[in-house]
Amino acid sequence: MKKLFLVLAIVLVNVQSQAQISFDRETAAPGNLRFTWIHGSLSAKANTDVRIQVHRYNEHTYILRQNPAIHWEAPFMYLLMGNERALLLDTGATEEAEYFPLREVVDQVLTRWSDAQGIEMPELLVLPLGSDQSQLGALGQFNGRPNTVIIPPTEESRDQLFGEGWHEGGQLDLGGRLLEVLPTPGLDTAAMSLYDPWAQLMFTGNAFYPGRLVIRDFKDYRQSLRALVKLADTKPVSMILGGRIEMTSQPGMDYRLRTNFRPNEHSLQLSVRHLETALQAVTLINGTTDIRVLNDLILMHGVGRGARDSGSPVFIPEQFRAPNTR
Question: Per the domain annotation, does 17 fall within a domain?
Answer without folding.
Answer: no
